[in-house]
Specification:
Largest sheet: 2 strands, antiparallel
Strand content: under 5%
Distance between the termini: 43 Å
Helix content: 55-70%
Order of helices and strands: HHHHHHHEEH
Radius of gyration: 16 Å
Number of strands: 2
Structural class: mainly alpha
Number of helices: 8
Length: 169
């Protein structure tokens, strides 16, 4: 297995987490929050997808699926189009209320497709390319991709946990 294949596998596992977290849920279930300050399944999966879309599009020098493929319009959220969920308030979390799980799955599929296309076309030195010099040490493409994977897996696991709570109510 080469590096691209390992990364594609990791992002594929995130894709499975998203599907297992949201498939078959009603709009009310997607918006379920264990308490008023908790994140919903909808917000968690939307946010992890926004982070992947934002970060990988920046690395690949592509437009995000969020805007390029009209997902921002389909979601119709009351946020700036550049919002990824970072720093969202409890009220912002509550505003993410998709009408069906297919919207979340469709957006994630579009982002996953863009991510795997980029990873499949990576050259041998792409992971070492520095993309953010504001950190010490500077952030490379490889470090950013690992950061996205880590964030996505954590939020995907949280969504599965909330779904488990919902199912045991």
């Amino acid at each position: 297995m080469n590096t691209a294949e390992v990364l594609i596998d990791a992002f594929g596992r995130i894709r499975q987490l998203v599907e297992k977290s949201v498939e078959g849920l009603s709009p009310e279930d997607l918006a379920y929050r264990p308490d008023p300050a908790a994140n919903s399944i909808a917000w968690l999966t939307w946010h992890l997808t926004r982070i992947q879309d934002d970060h990988v599009a920046e690395i690949a020098a592509n437009e995000q699926a969020w805007t390029a493929a009209g997902w921002a319009d389909r979601f119709g959220l009351p946020f700036d189009v550049a919002a990824t969920g970072f720093g969202h308030s409890s009220e912002d979390v509550a505003a993410v209320r998709p009408q069906n799980p297919e919207l979340l799955i469709g957006y994630h599929e579009a982002v996953w497709s863009n991510t795997t296309a980029y990873l499949g076309a990576m050259g041998p030195n792409d992971l070492d390319r520095i993309i953010d010099e504001s950190y010490d040490p500077p952030v490379s493409v490889g470090v950013r991709l690992v950061s996205v994977i880590s964030d996505n897996i954590q939020h995907g696991g949280q969504a599965r946990y909330v779904r488990g709570m919902l199912e045991r109510r």
